[in-house]
Design goal:
The structure is a homodimer of 473-residue chains. Chain A is built from 17 helices and 17 strands. By secondary structure, chain A is α/β, with parallel strands linked by helices. The first copy, chain A, folds into 3 domains: 3-76, Orthogonal Bundle (Arc Repressor Mutant, subunit A), CATH 1.10.10; 88-117 and 362-471, Alpha-Beta Complex (Aspartate Aminotransferase, domain 1), CATH 3.90.1150.10; 120-361, 3-Layer(aba) Sandwich (Aspartate Aminotransferase, domain 2), CATH 3.40.640.10. In chain A, the strands form 4 sheets. In chain A, strands 3, 5, 6, 7, 8, 9, 10, 11 and 12 form a 9-stranded mixed beta sheet that branches. In chain A, strand 7 (215-222) and strand 8 (226-227) form a beta hairpin. The longest helix of chain A has 27 residues, at 360-386. The first copy, chain A, is globular, with a radius of gyration of 24 Å. The first copy, chain A, starts with a helix and ends with a helix. Chains A and B meet through helix 2, helix 3, helix 5, helix 6 and helix 7 of A and helix 2, helix 3, helix 5, helix 6 and helix 7 of B. Chains A, B: Residues 1-69 form the HTH gntR-type domain.
Amino acid sequence: MAKYQQLVDQLREQIEAHIWPTGEKLPSLRQQAEQSGLSLMTVMHAYEVLESQGWIVSKPQSGYYVAPRAASSRARPPVQAIARTDQADTNSFVFDVLQATRDPAIMPFGSAFPDPELFPQRQLMRSLVKVSHTLRPGDALNNLPPGNEALRKILAQRYAQQGITLSPDDIVITNGAMEALNLSLQAVTEPGDWVVIENPSFYGALQAIERLKLNAIAIASDVQQGIDLQELEQALQRWPVKACWLMTNRQNPLGYTLSAERKQQLVALLARYDVAMIEDDVYSDLYSGQDKPLPAKAFDRDGRVLHCGSFSKNLVAGFRVGWVAAGRYAQRVQRIQLMSTLSTSAPMQLALADFLSTRSYDTHLKRLRQTLAKRKQLAQQALRRVLPADAHVSDTPGGYFLWIALPEHINTTALYHLALQAGISIAPGQLFSSGDQFSHCFRFNTAWPWDSRAEAAVETLGQLIAQLAGARR
Amino acid sequence: MAKYQQLVDQLREQIEAHIWPTGEKLPSLRQQAEQSGLSLMTVMHAYEVLESQGWIVSKPQSGYYVAPRAASSRARPPVQAIARTDQADTNSFVFDVLQATRDPAIMPFGSAFPDPELFPQRQLMRSLVKVSHTLRPGDALNNLPPGNEALRKILAQRYAQQGITLSPDDIVITNGAMEALNLSLQAVTEPGDWVVIENPSFYGALQAIERLKLNAIAIASDVQQGIDLQELEQALQRWPVKACWLMTNRQNPLGYTLSAERKQQLVALLARYDVAMIEDDVYSDLYSGQDKPLPAKAFDRDGRVLHCGSFSKNLVAGFRVGWVAAGRYAQRVQRIQLMSTLSTSAPMQLALADFLSTRSYDTHLKRLRQTLAKRKQLAQQALRRVLPADAHVSDTPGGYFLWIALPEHINTTALYHLALQAGISIAPGQLFSSGDQFSHCFRFNTAWPWDSRAEAAVETLGQLIAQLAGARR
């Protein structure tokens, strides 16, 4: 844990224990530094964090005082604030989990990607061959940020089909959604800023926030209802939040889709507090039912939503092409991209533009959704057979993840290590939160052929869970 | 200018003017904040910068005092320290210059890329078609960081041909050298750290340092000899430098190549001060003469050099494939890449691996070097005809840039704007330094067919320069 964080925790405990009562003056920065042996910079940082969290207030030309706060709110802080910490261990664990899913001998229930055999390889390669024959030497320049014009036009048309009007110039083509999200976050924050995420959330958000020296506020999110808008508003009242990084459709890892009404409320709330929204919508085409749900971007009136999409989860993983409809931030995103990776590969952009100009994409997506729905159902059935009766398996429509909550005493990081030895990967709850409240949960990828190998792997997983359950009883 | 920087400048001037004599106690942080109306954080930051630059020292439990320093060194600071500033304007100008080179109607003397018609388009596309036929759906996973194994092996073999032994596992394939450089910088620094660059230097280095909230120290670099190693050592003595970002072969924009001896001295010096080196070597294959010069990496004994290369300047710009031989930082670079862009496009990696496994690459490079040398000579001749007699045109072997120093009263940013109106781009000196000492210089890209259009553009450029020279006389 960072040194300043230790001081933050210590002072917060002391304030909670009324060692420093409301209104009391705290030691000056220099006094605190001398007492604690910490540097002035560290103490300054700790006081800053405490101030931004509402525990203390600074009075000009006087010093720092314990803030007046209601006892009730202090007893149970409404949101979980994660200050910057040294998350080297978490990053290293995420890395290990990702690496494990690359070994073809491992059953990839922990993977974030669907079975690549579901993708229209032949048609895509046909587009790539076509591009190989027509690409001109100068095409690299034509595909610099904001990216290939034909591709941006097609994307704008797809937004238009949902009734969302935006200009191709609002769209920036990126090296996958991962770059889109990272560029977006950089476009709307400075180090030290506060960013709201869901709890649990995509580990990429946690990592990006850590890497860019931002502070995260994780808002409780329900497996059915999604992010708690009341808690969100409380957080916006209390912290100087600059941006939210949220998923509105088939949230990773929980799987929920916010209702259109809640999306609208969300955007209105963020507009009220002038907060930018990074909308991670990489599963948008993997809906269930007839109609593709709207993104929150559909309710954006002033360009504050940066809507990030990708082809990696529904068409082709290896091309590394995504985009962001970046609203008022489009030019900033482009500039940061020029400094970071310069641009997205020209042949990949052109091949996708070619493929998307055919009808194949929608035909493929329809079939993909059907296959994924079937596989998910089979996985749910298989899991229910082997899981303890008190386990909870999420049942949200669309996508290909299940979120499984085991009885609380079963640690899924232990399960992860045991399963890996047995040739099975899962994504343990620890990846999706900086706290440990999901240490009994895991994410399960159902997008694999439901054959005897998968059945056997689920059997083994069930036995390992039973072992872990027994070990603690 | 940032507020803290104003305070830094003000106090430095006051110290130089002996308003605060050596040994004098400065106002405390809180006093200074009250006097100046600045926040404590800003004052703290300013004092920190002054301390790291050796102007003041802090004494525990006492305060800040003016440091004892030799009058001579104060009269002429040996290196130019650039503290973080708001460089939004510079970034915006770089962006505008880059955008201008994309318009085919503009003569791209300001471009960083060579004429794409010089690249072996047909053979590359043959490799791409081959890949299109053999790519398997699962290949995306096999090409995640560190990247395609065959490609990393070929690169390791090319290092071995120069007598540099490194494992394919030291190499990480990236989205062009731009990503390689940025990942490297992130791998070896934290915000607030000090980084050495050349003066002048590649604008991408200045931008990355600004974006990652680092502090730059720009070391004077001579158009023939390259970076001044004495100044570098003085800087290492005086500042807590974490990393250098340097070019050793055909430095951009000056064009010099450090001698092998100086490269060895450089690496030894950095080892002595335990400083990491990011070596930007994207022009390594564009040498003149028989043998490819060694990179500084060849003298690296303990994995501190992150050697960044690319195919964008010598083979194909639009694929966006580069690499870093990252030594002891290889795993860190991979992890940061996984969080930033996930990986480099699989088809692009595979197509390059296929192309490089043939003899075509070396045949192409040989021809490319010959053509570039011829074009550069023609450009030099044309420029000498039109430039004022007191202009200086660099004459360094290899590469395709010329660095042109006009008489000091001619402002090349003004020239840039005039030239652009006449359909000609140049890269003004302002892009390559945060100071203004190169405001009479510009970089000129000679890698274009030397036809009547180019000749006419150089004529026009000469007339514009004469106009500007006359205007101030």
